[in-house]
Design a protein that fits this description.
CATH superfamily of the largest domain in chain A: Metal-dependent hydrolases
GO molecular function, one term (chains A, B, C): hydrolase activity
Number of strands of chain A: 10
CATH topology of the largest domain in chain A: TIM Barrel
Order of helices and strands of chain A: HEHHHHHHEEEHHHEHHEEEHEHEHHH
Number of domains of chain A: 2
Helix content of chain A: 40-55%
Bound molecules: zinc ion
Number of helices of chain A: 17
CATH class of the largest domain in chain A: Alpha Beta
Protein name (chains A, B, C): Amidohydrolase
Radius of gyration of chain A: 22 Å
Oligomer: homotrimer
GO biological process, one term (chains A, B, C): glucuronate catabolic process
InterPro entries (chains A, B, C): Metal_Hydrolase, Uronate_isomerase
Keywords (chains A, B, C): Hydrolase
Largest sheet of chain A: 5 strands, parallel
Chain lengths: ~450, ~450, ~450
């Protein structure tokens, strides 16, 4: 039985059932060409471990990309005891035990070499077998990817590794030379003005949808405010961005507004959900380790997005908010807007204390058919299971306490709710455009 | 025993006691001329059901006011299974069972016609008997109304259905022609400037207090900031508003500032509590169903109101905040300002997860004599009981866990605290001006 | 056994262990010359009691400083029953029982004279013995003080009563004549410009560190935003401040920015932690009792401090935030920035409901070696024990539920974590600069 099983007998019973289901994971950063790890360094390289160890005093140089992988793992291991209280550490331990056959209680300087050996799948041909093995142990049904807009999307089964069009660069970095180059290279559209820009982005949608993409996604900083695009008025700013001229702040704003609105229009056209991940500010802490430099400003409100939700009633917006204290607002907006869907528990909010509170409010106040319980956000396949198990446990505890004991529901009724939230809702909301569930 | 009773035996025991008390409900939208429902459509028409069903996919047309009532009920019923996880659905089920003798477990397309029949009190003369029956089953002592300023307040027992002067229109819509017309018609004051405006509003206070009003109330948007009125300087803006001329934003602000401050002065004069409901923004989602279009911006702070609380030490301000994450700030302001009273759990914050957290902090950190536990905010009398039972249960659970088990209190001491919060405080705080408790 | 012991048997067992340890208290307002109370009035004079009683209706005049102490105590006692639900009242009861031998259940008008007599240590020589007795009963290892910058720091054992340089006046009130006078008097530096100002402040650091200071501390209003100092550009503003000329808002800002940044530089130089207490606005409610006039604006974000944390990687910043809803952001910033340490639970956030939520998130997501569990913020020594016991209980409850039952830890492992958070981390983080732990 999973170490994630809750102590309460009723919750444990529900958890066992839920843990026997397949996992449908609607957002990750898995590389479809190399989904599972080849060695422990690829597991320990997850930013949570490097950033928490760094936060606890490890110099960034100890996990420098230039070091040999096992050395990086050893270096990190010497700091893991300082973060063995964290939920992130518990994922690591569950991975080590479930996937690597680790028997110990602690991953530290003493056990790291053993574990490194157990986790090694770097031999020729071993990797693909390991990918399949992790997929099966995880009982994974589908996992969504995060694909750059110029990803050719070739070489994997897109019904299992589902493409997702990530659009941060288009909206936030259109003025950077590489963005336009990549856009032109991937679409063969000569981008010079608002009209050709739109044609190019439309070509991306066509390409992605044809290759099985089932969502468009973006992460947006707290100061971004969606506004209806004004293509004619924005023509000049867009031209300046495309030709890499310096932009005034208001011109920048015009460009990102226009591109963002265009994306929403194309989501409507192609019937793609538009995942909004609201809140991060990039590189707040430039001294941090790779992947551990972003934070947020908690002064953010979904009210800024009301105009977007209103204008695109036909687009489904699965929304994740970054600041844990913004979770209650998402409940209210999901309760009113038919097209706003509370989506998982993201990054700095992906901590049991915050998940439990958000999950409770959502399950008490948002229509059950709109809840997308969880996504892994994983970079390596091994993380899908322990992260989902963390959520499954919190869900089982809520169902036991609030629904079965609290409202007198049968266990079956509670499990029906869990099944909706974990499987049926995401399958339906992210189904193949124009077709049945994937 | 109520289905709302908590599973923990000690909490259940406390709940049973508390549930046997009368209910004193200091804020509702009950129509004193027609307090209980005449048919099920009037129950299902509560905005929670239409907005949640709409959020879950029901087209607004299915509950169009032009449809026959039973058709609307049937239409809505086909969508209720999608929201049967919500606390709002649980109120409905409790109403069906407690008041209508419904025996089923689910209100859906199959059971709706039966329930509609059970809930029918539309026969001539049946309505009044039904009003009395619901009042008695609820064990209601008094329920506060929400009366437009030109309500004649005639035709009911104002010691049971207590008038309350609602002032949103005066503050926020003074510039609309109908507001001034209504004000002149109801006061016989010829309103032309700051002075006559104040005379007219004073006349409203006199009228309302004479007819038993025990509170003045208003809901205010997040961008409203109370400021000391400047009658002379604002003269011009007020004149322009009264004569329906276009106002600049700063003139608008001057007008609403002046009227709001005038209301506070008159509350001081007439010894009326001034209920502040802080946060809603109207019509954020124009595509929503009636009553389901308002939301908020969570970036709001009671600090904006400090100048008001300071200036009117003699006015009691029962305060409700809309954004769930603003609840902790209300605890701090209630703990410092003698005239700030945390008032119930409002609308988007009226969800068990949020109530439980707020209730706990208030009962741990605000003087017990200042807590107004709950109000129903109901539009129909049937909702008072299930909504209060939801609160009573959370209160009983807090008392069992935190006070009896946690601090070693006797059950009697815990019940004394409950009695204060539910009955004695609201009776005292909202007593008839100049008289004893109502 | 302490009345603070939790009801759950496992949590109680952990609590008993934890309660047997010494207390290391890294922030208080204790007067080292007169640490414990001499009479009950000095206990009841703690702002929590006067402000809560005032909030519940007591006129400020009843605790006027001009009244005889016993009269003040009697006056206050007549209002205590209205706040006997609060956690602050429970500290009082624990003090009365633990230190004064009080046997009753309530402190009120009936029992106040008895208690006053029991708490009297005003006889010649009795005070010092009482100080030692409270110290020993509390099992106190060290308590940090809050010393004005011109405190001579003489006359006590600074390894027990640890000096801490409080700098609010320097940053926020440099323009007030008394500040410069005091600065010149205490440093013998003739302060006339940026350079001499810095010399004077550097002299304070030298003086404080030589006399055992182990932290610099400041409380900052929500509108303060740290910025890199610009000594040359700020020269004029600083000169105007020093000569008490009127300052424009931007000049004010320049002055406080410069002084604050200088403090951070000197903390780096002297290897002193810089305690940041973020959020209070002074005198929000001028009508309040002494110490009960400050509040906050919840619209505040640590993002404003990112530039500071980034610029001074070598300075440890123990951070307390005032608005309870800002706690989750502190978790995220502590998880990323190596030099940001979540520090205790402060003032309006120091309520079990808020502590329990914050403690849980911190222990789940911040490296365990960075957590400073609690400080008393006490003005009199008697408060250290009940306040720490409140925290110890919440910690024991978390460990029992989340770690032992929830994760299968042994009790010993849970206690190791508690020991880090309560003792080893603060000892290490606040150790004597250049030396071993104090
Ligand atoms: Zn992601
Ligand atoms: Zn209302
Ligand atoms: Zn302090």
């Amino acid at each position: 039985m999973s170490q994630a099983a809750p102590p309460d007998p009723l919750a444990r019973e529900l958890f066992e059932q839920i843990a026997s289901w397949p996992i449908y994971d609607p957002h990750s950063h898995i590389d479809a060409h190399r989904p599972a790890s080849r060695n422990l360094d690829e597991v320990l390289g997850y930013h949570y471990y490097t950033e928490l160890a760094h936060s606890a005093g490890m110099p960034a140089a100890e996990v420098d990309p230039g070091l040999p992988p096992q050395q990086r793992a050893r270096n990190l291991a010497r700091h893991l005891h300082r973060i063995d209280n964290t939920v992130q550490y518990s994922w690591l331990l569950e991975i080590a035990r479930t996937f690597f056959g680790f028997q110990g209680d602690r991953i530290d300087a003493d056990s790291i070499d053993d574990l490194y050996r157990l986790a090694d799948h770097s031999a020729a041909g071993a990797g693909e077998a390991w990918d399949r093995s992790v997929w099966e142990t995880t009982n994974l049904e589908a996992v969504f990817l995060t694909n750059e807009f110029d990803d050719p999307l070739e070489g994997w089964d897109t019904s299992k590794y589902v493409p997702c069009l990530r659009t941060d660069d288009l909206v936030l970095k259109l003025h950077e030379p590489r963005t336009i180059q990549r856009l032109q290279a991937s679409t063969n559209v000569d981008v010079g003005d608002v009209k050709s820009l739109r044609l190019a982005i439309a070509a991306l949608f066509e390409y992605f949808v044809e290759r099985g993409a089932r969502a468009c996604a973006i992460s947006l900083p707290p100061d971004f405010v969606p506004r209806r695009a004004t293509p004619v008025a924005s023509q000049n700013s867009v031209r300046r961005a495309i030709t890499h001229m310096d932009l005034r702040p208001d011109e920048h704003e015009e460009v990102r507004t226009l591109v963002f609105w265009t994306l929403a229009e194309l989501c409507a056209e192609w019937n793609l959900p538009f995942d909004l991940m609201i809140g991060p500010i990039r590189n707040v802490y430039p001294g941090g380790v790779a992947g551990g430099r972003d934070l947020f400003d908690r002064r953010v409100s979904l009210h800024d997005y009301a105009v977007l939700f209103t204008h695109f009633p036909g687009v489904s917006f699965p929304v994740s908010t970054l600041s844990p204290d913004a979770g209650a607002e998402l409940v209210a907006f999901s309760w009113i807007f038919p097209n706003v869907v509370p989506n998982g528990h993201w990054w700095y909010s992906n901590v049991p204390a915050f998940i439990a509170a958000d999950l409770k409010a959502r399950l008490q106040a948002v229509p059950k058919t709109k809840l997308v319980g969880y996504y892994s956000d994983a970079y390596k396949l091994e993380f899908v299971l322990p992260k989902f198990n963390m959520y499954r446990r919190l869900l089982a505890e809520f169902l036991a306490e609030d629904c079965v004991r609290g409202r007198g529901w049968s266990a079956d009724r509670a499990l029906e709710l869990a099944r909706l939230v974990l499987l049926e809702n995401p399958r339906r909301l992210f189904q193949r455009p124009g077709g049945g569930a994937g």
